[in-house]
Design brief:
The chain has 209 residues and is of the alpha+beta class. The protein has three domains: 66 residues, Nucleic acid-binding proteins (OB fold (Dihydrolipoamide Acetyltransferase, E2P), Beta Barrel), CATH 2.40.50.140; 63 residues, 5' to 3' exonuclease, C-terminal subdomain (DNA polymerase, domain 1), CATH 1.10.150.20; 56 residues, Helicase, Ruva Protein, domain 3. The chain is built from nine helices and five strands. The protein has a five-stranded mixed beta barrel with strand order 1-2-3-5-4. Strand 1 and strand 2 form a beta hairpin. 31% of the residues are buried.
Length: 209
């Protein structure tokens, strides 16, 4: 599987008949990579180097690449496509209309109305997404959250912190805010008691956010 590519950004298009896309020159070969509007907006200018995290889409009648500026966006794209009724076009529409955190929190908290901001996503499909993807989204966000904590040296996450983190995400708190609250209370709570971690984190967040 082609996980990423790095090369010279030849051009980029916000709108076209095929949607938003990058054209990347990698060792003399031109790769056309479909993407989201948000990725276009946060990408380098043509003539500069670019690295895209990619997903290879194989269809009976087509073979194409989708790519994003961050691994997190690419991973969420793959998760979205695992839901029935969510194809490449709808997944890119979601990632164009909403941030990674907004999509994850909407699914985890059953806030399907937020998902309908994306073109092509009606109430029925949005509700179906929250039902099908909630558990998978929580597992993904927890794994990503743990990685962030460990890489920053904030703490050695226990199951209690992971359980509390899932609840805080569902309440709409940002991952960065949750990390700061866990760091603040780390030495003051029993790491095996998720209800205490949650209570103290909420107390800290109420005073600090």
């Amino acid at each position: 599987m082609l996980s990423f590519l790095k090369g010279l950004l030849v051009s980029k298009a916000y709108e076209s008949p095929k949607g938003a896309y990058f054209l990347v020159d990698m060792h003399g070969m031109g790769f056309e990579v479909l993407t989201s509007h948000r990725a276009i907006e946060s990408s380098p200018m043509p003539g500069e180097q670019i690295q895209l995290f990619t997903a290879l889409i194989v269809r009976e009648d087509a073979l194409f690449l989708v790519g994003f500026n961050t691994k997190e966006e690419r991973d969420l794209f793959n998760i979205l496509q695992s839901a029935s009724g969510i194809g490449t076009k709808v997944a890119l529409s979601l990632l164009s209309a909403l941030s990674v955190s907004e999509i994850a929190q909407a699914v985890v908290s059953n806030n399907f109305n937020l998902l309908t901001k994306a073109k092509g996503v009606g109430n029925k499909l949005a509700q179906k997404m929250t039902l099908e993807l909630k558990e998978k989204m929580m597992s993904w966000r927890s794994a990503d959250f743990v990685s962030g904590l460990e890489s920053s040296g904030l703490l050695n996450p226990s199951e209690a912190f992971l359980e509390a983190e899932s609840v805080l995400l569902s309440l709409g708190y940002q991952p960065e805010e949750i990390q700061r609250s866990f760091k603040a209370i780390e030495g003051d709570v029993e790491k095996d008691a998720s209800e205490i971690v949650l209570r103290e984190s909420l107390r800290w967040l109420a005073q600090s956010v």
